[in-house]
């Protein structure tokens, strides 16, 4: 998965911007990062752009893995999800959702609940997620981004700053490292 968001949508911590310069490695602009993602993933990879502000790219796994990859969209909210929620049935029941829904659809519904009726802060909802996961949500209507990596740390999520100042988020460390030069770091777990 890959998310690229203009800095007006995501305020990355200033520490993510490395002042260190490396003459042979420079950060890439967003369009080159997308090109690299598409070229190193399967032929069924796809991406969605939202004007000049946001981009989500996704590719099903080429290799057998215990971690599933899902992409869903509902009411202008899009979610790229990796991993598994062990308590998905319980969560669907708690939120009054159909028991046939997958993890990405649950994450969208939980996000909508927080956004629209929010009885709990986001960290309270994340504490209820059991499993190994990472996800990125883009709410096109509200122009907001929400990303999280499970507290167990089994699925790494990384973020960095592209040459044009955009924030890049992906589980692919090599892609983020090659794209953002020294301005990248692991995404905090459990957030």
Automatic annotation (TrEMBL):
This is Stem-specific TSJT1-like protein. Transmembrane segments: none annotated. Residues 2-190 form the DUF3700 domain. InterPro entries: DUF3700, Ntn_hydrolases_N, TSJT1-like.
């Amino acid at each position: 998965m890959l998310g690229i968001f203009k800095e007006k949508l995501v305020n990355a911590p200033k520490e993510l911007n490395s002042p260190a310069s490396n003459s042979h490695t420079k950060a890439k602009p967003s369009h080159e990062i997308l090109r690299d993602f598409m070229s190193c993933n399967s032929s069924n990879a796809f991406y969605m752009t939202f004007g000049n502000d946001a981009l989500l790219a996704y590719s099903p796994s080429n290799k057998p893995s215990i971690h599933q990859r899902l992409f869903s969209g509902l009411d202008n909210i899009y979610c790229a999800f990796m991993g598994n929620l062990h308590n998905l049935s319980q969560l669907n029941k708690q939120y009054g959702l159909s028991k046939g829904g997958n993890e990405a659809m649950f994450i969208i519904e939980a996000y909508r609940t927080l956004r629209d009726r929010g009885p709990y802060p986001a960290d309270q909802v994340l504490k209820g997620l059991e499993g190994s996961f990472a996800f990125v949500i883009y709410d096109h209507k509200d122009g907001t981004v929400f990303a999280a990596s499970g507290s167990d740390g089994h699925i790494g999520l990384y973020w960095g700053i592209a040459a044009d100042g955009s924030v890049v988020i992906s589980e692919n460390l090599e892609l983020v490292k090659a794209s953002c030069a020294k301005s990248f770091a692991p995404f905090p777990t459990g957030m």
